[in-house]
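stage 2 :: seqdesign
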């Protein structure tokens, strides 16, 4: 079976967020969604201290060859910290509740499985649905 590098690499954005939480950027939050066509997965990062919202899925596609080979999570983290140091400064925080929930959410995903909080056809505030049809309970 051929590897789905796009989905594997996009999932690494979630692991990027998890690693940033472990480094103390617990104010960082993730907003996964599907494009209106349903063909592309999108991921934005935001933080509790500002209204700044980063399209990290676009950033990943601009900086890594995500359709042809698997990107290194370590390299993604390093590059993100270099490119978005100003954003990370605003993400320093103590949202232990969210970062713990996020860590548990990551453990529920299979390789390349992508969650989404909303799309044109899905919007349940109690769950994130995944590309494999799972429902992951959200925070209230």
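stage 2 :: out
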């Amino acid at each position: 079976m051929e590897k789905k590098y796009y989905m594997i690499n996009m999932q690494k954005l979630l692991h990027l967020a998890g690693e940033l939480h472990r480094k103390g950027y617990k104010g960082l939050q993730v907003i996964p969604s599907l494009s209106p066509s349903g063909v592309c997965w999108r991921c934005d990062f935001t933080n509790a201290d500002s209204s700044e919202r980063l399209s990290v899925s676009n950033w990943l596609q601009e900086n890594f060859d995500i359709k042809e080979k698997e990107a290194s999570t370590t390299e993604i983290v390093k590059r993100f910290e270099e490119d978005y140091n100003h954003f990370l400064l605003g993400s320093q925080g103590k949202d232990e509740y969210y970062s713990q929930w996020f860590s548990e959410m990551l453990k529920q995903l299979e390789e390349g499985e992508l969650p989404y909080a909303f799309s044109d056809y899905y919007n349940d505030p109690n769950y994130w649905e995944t590309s494999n049809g799972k429902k992951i309970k959200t925070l209230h």
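stage 3 :: structure notes
- The mean pLDDT is 90.
- The CA atoms of residues 24 and 92 lie 6 Å apart.
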